[in-house]
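Page 42, continued from yesterday. The earlier attempt failed because a stray header line got pasted into the input along with the sequence. Redoing it now with the clean sequence only.
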Amino acid sequence: MSSNSGKMNLLGKLVDIIYPPQCPICREFLQENDLNRGDRGISFCRACYGDFRRIASPLCPICGSPFASEVKEDHLCEDCLRKRPPYEIARAPYIYNGAVLTAIHRFKYGSKSLLADPLGLLLTQYAENWVRKQDSVLIMPVPLHPRRLRERGFNQSLLLARPVAKKLHAELDFLSLRRVRYTSPQTGLRKEERRKNVRGAFGVETPEAVEGRTVLLIDDVATTGNTLSECASVLKRSGCDKVICLVLARTGSF
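This time it went through. Structure tokens are written below.
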């Protein structure tokens, strides 16, 4: 170990003593042996991380909606049987409840942008194993309207997309896909209201950037999937070849 590394480790320990690291979800102090602790990176305690429910089969092979069934074979959900979505496939590593829900709410609505690092790491770990099977991708986060961006101060989808793009050595484009109409939050709206709420809300400013490309569309949460579908439709109309979707957590049915 170099002298500089030794000094940095000592400095890190001193900082930990003065400002003990806390789990960003439950606020409990983290111990040395807690999960995902490395190099003063923000992490979750064992209890909270253990409450992150992973999505597993059986699920819909298109939208990724999980089924509460003893049968392990994947099969199409009712929505995808009735009308196939404009994207090719959508996946999420976690169910949107419990500790995951709390973390994402604090991330988005509590101005806790520091949660971007641990949540981005979790999404990146999933993307490594899933997206590598796909073609070379152009990564695009679901955009915020400029007014919403001013209100929140950051686009949570962009913060999640950056580490994914870096790990996959993929191009990141957060300018071409735009939210051109200000919309009410989807939270609290019924399924049909959500669909109407995002209709015509997106546009592609530079169609040549997506022409013939496979786009990996990234968002934090999917519920009905209307936002992903609307973005995918706009991208396809602009010449995009394929759209695959990756979100950190999902709930409900697409």
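Notes: Residues 8 and 148 are 39 Å apart (CA to CA).
Reminder to self: strip header lines before submitting.
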